[in-house]
TrEMBL record:
Origin species: Stappia indica
Residue ranges crossing the lipid bilayer per the database entry: 6-27
Higher taxonomy: Bacteria, Pseudomonadati, Pseudomonadota, Alphaproteobacteria, Hyphomicrobiales
Name of the molecule in the record: Uncharacterized protein
Keywords annotated in UniProt: Membrane, Transmembrane, Transmembrane helix
The keyword Transmembrane helix belongs to this UniProt entry's keyword annotation: yes
Length: 28
């Protein structure tokens, strides 16, 4: 269960990071 939660948090963090990089590349 804990491993599943950690994987979910890691996945959300990874997606968020990609979105932020995409937005920054669009702005600059």
């Amino acid at each position: 269960m804990l491993k599943f939660i950690g994987g979910t948090v890691g996945f959300i963090f990874l997606v968020g990071l990609v979105v932020v990089i995409g937005i920054l590349m669009l702005i600059f």
